[in-house]
Amino acid sequence: MKKSIIMTIIMVMIISLIGVVNAANETATVSIAGKKEVKKGDKVTVTMTVNSKKAVVGADFTVNYDSKFLKFVESSALAANANEAGKIVVEHVATSGIKEITFTFEVIGKEGSSNITATPSAFTAGTTEEDEIKVDSIKGPFVVSIAKAAETTKPKDETTPKEEEETPKAKDTTPKTGSVNVAPVVAVSAIAGLAVVAIAIKKIRK
User: Fold this and answer.
1) Under 8 Å CB-to-CB from 110, ≥6 apart: which residues?
2) What is the pLDDT of the chain when averaged over all its residues?
3) Cα dihedral across residues 115, 120, 121, 127: positive or negative
4) Is the pTM of this model over 0.70?
5) Bigger pLDDT: 198 or 42?
């Protein structure tokens, strides 16, 4: 009787141990991808994809990027806290299972490249430590290449007229007021004056 009880206890312990080991040995594949070729001013979204047989309901990890070229804008994670050094501390929970988590960046660098990497902290399939899913590493790095902006050159204006045509001057219809010969007029006036004086003298003599 005692032997059967002991055997039962041992079997329960073995089954429990097997369950814990299996849960701990569950693995998930996590990778990041997005648009590679960008230019300054663009917004690029990087997607982290989780593949696992068991639904991953919790994920704690960090994302690193070059803050000289990229500026963190937003994430679909419940909590994503970024610092000026280019590190995002992420905590995300989804009871239905985590499939994707997105991160949006704004390109602030002129030319160069930035590696975006993610480092796992803890991925879980439940609420206990025994439900932790093993994630050795997150595939990467994902490289964002920032192309040099195209130089804008002002096109030469080939239709510029060589010389402006001179507009014809309007004919001046105003009568010219040049020098007038006033000598005859003065002479006539003088003769008329003498005649008047002569008539006046005759009247006085009479």
Assistant:
1) 40, 146, 148, 149
2) 74
3) positive
4) no
5) 42
